[in-house]
Amino acid sequence: MNLLSDFRILLLGLWLGAACFFSFAVAPSAFGVLPSRELAGLVVNRTLAIVNYSGLIVGLILLASSYAKRRDVDKIKLWIEQGLLVLLTAACAFGQFVIAARLSDLRGRIGRPIDEAAADDPLRVAFNDLHGYSVTILMTAMIAAVIAFFLIVRRARNTK
After folding, report:
1. 9 with 155: CB under 8 angstroms?
2. Cα 33 to Cα 43: distance, rounded to the nearest angstrom
3. Environment class of 64 (CB within 10 Å of its CB; exposed 0-12, middle 13-18, buried 19+)
4. pLDDT 10s digit of each residue in the chain, 160 long?
5. Residue 48's domain spans which residues?
6. Distance between CA 61 and CA 12 in Å, rounded?
7. CA separation for the pair 90, 62 (Å, rounded)
8. Rounded to an integer, what distance in angstroms lies between the CA atom of residue 117 and that of residue 153?
């Protein structure tokens, strides 16, 4: 493996580790430990923003670096890798700039802690739906990252 491949693998592995840690440790712990769901939501929202922004940056770096040393590379596998990196980047951008922005707007429009709104309140229903989309988008980015990770590792091994 060369330095560029090692760097790409490290970047993607770091982001994937952070996303997994957020999903499986930070978010559940925040809701399990903090005294209110509102505080837990604020911690999770802030941490998710870091995951999304870093995914956007990492995705762009990896996508740009995928164009280096493209000789003797299976073009189909390279396109798949690049497509997965575009998916990772787009999912993080969509999660942050569309879904998170709408969730923030809904929190402001509700005007009180989400749990205090009636379960059938249209704003709370919309909030819950957007939260589900947020989870799906992050999982999509993580799955794309895992597949891209293995493609990058495999390509690095084959170009020793």
Report:
1. no
2. 11
3. exposed
4. 588 889 999 999 999 999 999 999 999 999 999 999 999 999 999 999 999 999 999 999 999 999 886 677 788 989 999 999 999 999 999 999 999 999 999 999 998 888 888 999 999 999 999 999 999 999 999 999 999 999 999 988 887 5
5. 3-158
6. 10
7. 13
8. 48
**Taking a C-beta distance cutoff of 8 angstroms, is the pair 5, 154 a contact?**
no
Question: What is the distance of C-alpha 107 from the center of its chain?
Answer: 22
Do residues 12 and 58 lie in contact, with contact meaning Cβ atoms separated by under 8 Å?
Answer: yes
Element (H, E) at 143: helix 122-158
Number of domains in the chain: 1
Q: Give the end-to-end CA distance of the chain in Å, rounded to a whole number.
A: 5
* The residue count for the chain: 160
Which residue reads 């005007």 in tokens?
111
- Nearest one of 138, 139, 118 to 128, comparing CA atoms: 118
